[in-house]
Amino acid sequence: MTTDELIALSDKYIMPTYKRFPIVLVRGAGARVWDSNGKEYLDFVAGIAVCSLGHSHPKVVEAIKKQVEILTHVSNLYHIEPQILYAQKLMENSFANKAFFCNSGAEANEAAIKLARKYAYENMGKGKYELITMKDSFHGRTMATVTATGQTKFQVGFAPLLEGFKHVPFDDISALSNAITDKTCGVMLEPIQGEGGVRIPDDKYLSRVRKICDEKGILMILDEVQVGMARTGTLFAYEHYNVEPDIVTLAKAVGNGFPIGVMMATDRVASAFQPGSHASTFGGNPLAMAAALATLETIMKDGILENVRKVGAYFTKRLHELKDRSSIIKEIRGRGLIIGIEISIDGSSIVNACMDRGLLMNCTGGSVLRFVPPLTITEKDVDAAVAILGEVIADK
Q1: Which of 252, 273, 315, 381 does the annotation list as catalytic?
Q2: 253-295 pLDDT per residue, tens
Q3: Would you call 356 a catalytic residue per the annotation?
Q4: Which entry of 223, 258, 273, 315 is annotated as an active-site residue?
Q5: Which of 16, 168, 200, 243 has the fewest beta carbons under 10 Å from its own?
Q6: Per the residue annotation, which of 44, 95, 138, 273 is the catalytic one?
């Protein structure tokens, strides 16, 4: 079929919940993808921080191939070997003691919300159920997670939203402290706000949140769906801030493209979940866990963290050079390989023009160009991306 025919069928049969670009991507390798017309693109979206090892990474492909020939799925009524091995590897490299597996970031955050309320119910009393989240945050599209999200544009048309959520400004410790009441059971936030425009808090902010949570006896929940799994140059973003949360959620990069969500917690908090408390039919099935284990082992053994730090610094340097030559670039924000460029004009025209020239990226909040490329990119890839971006910006 032609590209036009495929897009026509998409429009006919698929609900219009996405504003899609007029291309059909059919193949990927490393940091590049190709559309149905054979055009090549440098992919600095990576499935929105999902394909952290790049498209079709050979170690992940091999793990999935091997597992699908052995056992694809069994119920969590039984113990699952790859799930056990992955949980061990993840816990040994994190603050946490226990994991719950599901299929997406929204599901992981939903599980975190339920665990926080269940823990509060059993340890703090029935009146503590409220979670404080941040304005401009994004936590998912389920009813609970869209209520937790601090952006009204995602909530329009879905009222009544769920009870028990309160939003305060991000990186404002006084506002957080003043919002805590005798109903509060926890604080839920992203270490870096991705959908909110790559917003990075003050270096002491998370440690101050931790201190407040300890003083008030409430839980600290970190949504690392977008920034976890090496995106910032450490395996988890919380490591930059010298804190240990009570609950962390992961998804996106966990399976390098295979849909996986993880909610992990300390033994103390995880004990609130008992048989029947929560479940997921597909969560942690053998195929998913084979992909996750191969991804994590590759991150830990193949110098991925070092590459993120090195190439991330180089990318930021090149973007600052571009800023020096451009009047529309206001600010460059980022850590590792999650980088945002705030501009003074609408970003959609930049994104479209870059796509026409063979560079994929996206825009959040209307005016922040966001780059979340594979963590395996090279300085040569960065040079190619900056060259295209520079050409486009020079025309504005």
Answers
A1: 252
A2: 999 999 999 999 999 999 999 999 999 999 999 999 999 999 9
A3: no
A4: 223
A5: 16
A6: 138
Same domain, residue pair 34 and 146: no
Query: Is 282 one of the annotated active-site residues of the chain?
Result: no
Of 243, 271, 301, the residue that ends a domain is: 301
Final residue of a domain: which of 301, 321, 344? 301
238 phi and psi, to 5 degrees? -60, -20
pLDDT in tens, 331-345: 999 999 999 999 999
* Domains of the chain: total: 2
Question: What mean pLDDT is predicted for residues 221-228?
Answer: 98
Residues 87 and 140 in one domain: yes
Rounded to 5 degrees, what angle do the CA atoms 145, 147, 152 make?
120
Residues with Cβ < 8 Å from 92, sequence gap 6 or more?
none
| pLDDT tier for residue 126 given thresholds of 50, 70 and 90 | confident
Q: Catalytic annotation on 138? A: yes
User: For all residues of the chain together, what is the average pLDDT?
Assistant: 97
